[in-house]
Write a structure and sequence with these properties.
291 residues, alpha+beta, six-stranded antiparallel β-sheet
């Protein structure tokens, strides 16, 4: 005959079961909290990574197609002048104007946001082969400075030459992982847009000439984003230096949410500091950019 559990045994079993369930619940709750915290930090780091990539893309193009007015200071990190009264070309290709504010600075600088090309060889007396790194013939983009032998070509009035290319064989060709020395062809003669060059309204390309898209003036600043419950975002506003000939509209767009944004001129470079926030977690990212 089998004996059942006594009341004492049942109470002990219930107590042990309750203890095990309590421990499991505590572990589950702790695991959930750790997961939530980890996810918040992970989301914050992902936002920081995306923001860093956007700033990296902008600052890598800082001054890359900007002629300078003072050859002795062409690569110095210096002010572009007062906002609303910028001159072009600036004294230095690496000019940057910083207006310190709290919690976000305002910043202006010049950058090549499109492409460039290199004349590799003559195909015929009227055609050249080029290595195109996103050259475009579209009317809104087709405005280029010319650099020859390290010097910026200038119009008869002394302004940096702005030309329009003709009959580009491949729009927006990519120069990454290209075999050979050219990936497109175009007319050797270009149209001068801002005056005359040696009395002519055309400029004839030679082997070794570098074509650089006329830069944009980049303006970085913070303001509330209505699409994100008026949370503070870093914005970018770009104005085409060649707006009389190419892209006319000023473009403004949000980049990413920030708590703080500061830029410091270090003499030969700039340090960019960005603070992000997600919930009650914050993360500060710092980068140094220069030439």
């Amino acid at each position: 005959m089998r004996r059942g559990f006594t009341v004492v045994e049942l109470l002990v079993a219930i107590a042990i079961s309750g203890l095990i369930i309590g421990i499991m619940a505590s572990l589950l709750l702790t695991s959930s909290r750790v997961f939530t915290t980890t996810k918040t930090v992970s989301d914050l780091k992902e936002s920081a990574r995306v923001g860093a990539m956007q700033l990296e893309w902008l600052f890598q193009r800082w001054g890359t197609s900007t002629p300078c007015a003072d050859a002795n200071r062409c690569t110095q990190v210096m002010s572009c002048g007062d906002p609303g009264n910028f001159k072009y070309p600036p004294d230095s290709s690496l000019c940057i104007t910083i207006r310190q504010r709290n919690p976000c600075d305002e910043v202006w600088f010049y950058a090549n946001l499109y492409g460039l090309g290199f004349v590799d060889r003559l195909v015929s007396p009227s055609k050249v082969a080029v290595m195109s790194c996103r050259l475009y013939e579209s009317p809104q983009v087709n405005c280029y400075h010319i650099k020859r032998g390290g010097l910026w070509m200038r119009s008869d009035s002394g302004a940096p030459l702005i030309v329009r290319i003709r009959n580009l064989s491949k729009e927006g060709a990519d120069c990454i992982d290209v075999s050979g020395t050219s990936n497109a062809q175009m007319d050797r003669n270009t149209d001068v847009l801002n005056g005359l060059y040696q009395g002519s309204n055309t400029f004839r390309l030679e082997i070794g000439d570098l074509l650089l898209r006329v830069p944009h003036r980049v303006h970085l600043f913070c303001q509330p984003n209505q699409r994100d419950n008026n949370r503070q975002w870093l914005y970018m506003e770009i104005e085409d230096v060649a707006k009389n000939y190419c892209q006319r509209d000023t473009i403004r767009q949000p980049l990413f949410p920030v708590e703080e944004f500061h830029v410091v001129n270090m003499g030969n470079a700039v340090k960019v500091s960005v603070k992000y926030k997600e919930g009650d977690k914050t993360f500060t990212l710092e980068r140094v950019y220069g030439r």
